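Run: sequence + coenzyme A -> complex structure.
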Amino acid sequence: MSSYPTPTLTTKRLTLRPLAPDDAADLFAVFSDPAVVRYWSAEPWTSIAFAENAIARALDGYREQSEVRFGIELAETGAMVGTVNLHHFFPQNRRCELGYALGSPHWGKGYATEALQAALDYGFHELRLNRVEADIDPRNGASAAVLERMGFRKEGYMPERWFVHGEMADTINYGLLRRYWDARERT
Ligand SMILES: CC(C)(COP(=O)(O)OP(=O)(O)OC[C@H]1O[C@@H](n2cnc3c(N)ncnc32)[C@H](O)[C@@H]1OP(=O)(O)O)[C@@H](O)C(=O)NCCC(=O)NCCS
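>> structure
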């Protein structure tokens, strides 16, 4: 049985750290915004209970070391502005999935690029992953830009995979291999 602890990581402008019960209000602010869940098959959160439940699930995951769930905190202000997760681990195959979101007031400042760089570095170097997968809505240009900057490659296209806010939505499958990551680090 492999274990996947969630440590605290620091970057130039961010602290990636385990979520705590005190983060409920900040987390609610992020995921109650329709712009943030625009391309997800989930509705915006409508009460703080959604945040409390998500944090309770994260705390279970930390105890079991079954998933890596970081809150993204701005080093300058201490505000918790988003999350980045490594989840759905397949230990035998050294593979997992990646998810991330930032509060919309913080978009376009390079924070996702910085947070994903740190989380993926942890995944490949400390957790010894071989492959990380992401699937995104083809209309989600900012998300595609961040994944491609990390070295993810487009691997597939699945039409009408999700029901997203009243309509069927397609998926682009992305994959990042350890050898792409290592090659990117060398250049
Ligand atoms: C996707 C997301 C995390 C990006 O966060 P961010 O901090 O704004 O990302 P960054 O600033 O690091 O980089 C965004 C890049 O996308 C580019 N971009 C933004 N909107 C774009 C669009 N519509 N089309 C193409 N590129 C776009 C930006 O120009 C930037 O590239 P640049 O630095 O070369 O200019 C953020 O938009 C978000 O949380 N969205 C909602 C949740 C979500 O969709 N999560 C991912 C899906 S699983």
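>> summary
The first strand starts at residue 9 and ends at 10. The pocket of coenzyme A is lined by residues 36, 39, 99-102, 107-113, 136, 140-143, 145-146 (CB under 6 Å).
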